[in-house]
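Section 3.1: Structural characterization of target chains.
Under the original work plan, the team committed to producing a structural model for every single-chain target entering the pipeline before any wet-lab resources were allocated. The record below documents one such target. The sequence was received from the expression subgroup and is listed exactly as submitted; it comprises 166 residues.
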Amino acid sequence: MKHWYLLYCKRTEQQRAEQNLKRQGVDCYYPIVTVEKLRRGKYRQVEEPLFPNYIFACFDPESVQYTSVRSTRGVVDFVRQGAKPIHVDIQLIQHLMMMEDSDEQRELLYQGFKSGQKVTVESGQFAGAEAIFKEKDGEKRCILLIKILNQQTELRINNSDIKASC
């Protein structure tokens, strides 16, 4: 009987692992999302894995050996609980497949703030202050509009230092 497992792959070798596993008769899946990244001063659409370095594999352990899957080029090992590889629920895989490349996944991967959205600064010298999200400033930073002395001022801050206001 086939089961889904989670494999940890070498950095950026998910495609290699997938190709080699498929040659062995193992079904593979890793969710891909399209994100906007700043490259050479311009925002471009780039496809990235939702879970970098991880791939889901489905096979029957009676027909394909654990050791052959584990020793496949690009694969490091199974994600385990103790010595036993963890079975992944088929419903989780189906849910990921249905949601693939949706807005909800983008928000999971990156905090999807929109221009004009109210946010709260959580840390740093402006902790607790309310601001307005203006735009992205690279991959990990953003530009906020914050009121200081009754004037709106631009503030560049890490995305992890802000949260959406209610």
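The domain at 3-109 is CATH 3.30.70.940 (Alpha-Beta Plaits).
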